[in-house]
Give the backbone structure.
Amino acid sequence: MILAKKVRIKPTKEQELQLWKSVGTARWAYNWTLSRQEENYRNGGKFLSDGLLRKELTQLKQSEEYAWLYDVSNNVTKQAVKDACEAYKKFFKKLSDEPRFKSRKHSKPSFYNDTDKLKVKRNLVLIEKVGWVQTSEQLPVDVMYVNPRISFDGKYWYLSVGIEKDVEKPVRTEQVIGIDVGVKDLAVCSNGMTFKNINKSKAVKKVEKRLRRLQRKVSRKYEKNKEGNRFVKTCNIVKVEKFIRLLHRRLTNIRTNHIHQATNAIVKTKPSTVVMETLNITGIMKNRHLSKAIAKQKLYEFKRQLQYKCEKYDICFMEADRWYPSSKTCSGCSQIKKDLKLSDRVFKCGCGLEIDRDLNAAINLAKLAS
C-alpha cells in the first residue's frame, strides 16, 4: 500500500526564491494548458493529449519571450500540463467539476519534483534547480518515492512523497459501525461513540473572533487608502493580511487534526464493516442557512480519511444509498416517520421508542451491513 509522508523543509532565502519561481511556473503551465484546450474546443477540435501539448510547450521555450521557463526544471511544466489534462479527463467522466484557472491569490502554491532526481541524505533532500535543502526529519532512504510534491501552507514549506509499505492487518471483530455525520456533532456512531463539533470549542471561537477583528481592520485600511476607484495596498495592510493568512492556517490545522483523531478512534475499534451515509455536499451547500456551518465541518475530508484508513486496516467501507431514510426510520420497529422535521432532535415512535435522532440514524445504517 502507498502511504504519504509529509516533511517540513527549511530552505535558505535564495532557495525559497527559486521555490517560488517553480510555483509560479507550474501555475502558468496549468493555466496555459486550460486556455489551449478551451481555444481548441471553440475551434471545433478534439481533446488535446498531454503529449502533444508538452511538445508544443518545448517549441515555445525556444523563443526569447519564454526563455524564463528554463530557470526552473522542465519536469515542473511537464507535470503541470499532465495534471491539467487529467483534470479534464475526470470532468469528461463526470467525476469532478470543470477545471478552473489557478489564481495567484487563492490557489495552493505547489509543484512537482521528478522522482528520479529526488535524492535523500541525512536530514537533506535534493530538489531540482534548488539544491540540497534541509529537512526537519529524516526521509526513508533506499525506497521508491511516488509523486513527490513541494507545497507552501502560508508559513512553512513541505515535501510530500508516497512510499510503498507493507501494513500488518489487525485481527478484526465482528462489529459493524454505522456513522451519521451532521452539524450538531461531527459524527455519531452506532456503538455510542460521539465526536463533537470542534467549531463550538473555545479554541476555535477565540481564533475566529480574532480573525473577524483583523478582517474589519484591514477593510478600514483599504477604505482609508482608497484613491478614486483604486485600492492602495500599504505595508501595514500587507502585515495585517499576513496575520489573517496565519489565522486561517491555524483554523484549518485544528479542524483537520480533530478529523484525524475521530477517524483514528473509529478504526482502532477494529470493526469488520463501517457504514456511512452518502453525502451530497454540493446540494447541501446550496442551503444558505447551513452552508457555512457545513463547510467548517469538512465532511468530505472526514469521509476521505475514513476511506483510506479502512483500506489500510482491511476494514470494509460501505456507503448507504443517498435516498435511504436513515433518520426517519425507527431503529426498533422499522416504521418510517415521514413528518420528521430537522428541528426534531429526539426521535419518538409510536412503538414507544425515544432516542436521539443521530444515534437512531447510525443504528439504521449499521443494520444495512448485517
In short: Residues 173 and 271 are 5 Å apart (CA to CA). Residues 176-320 form one domain.
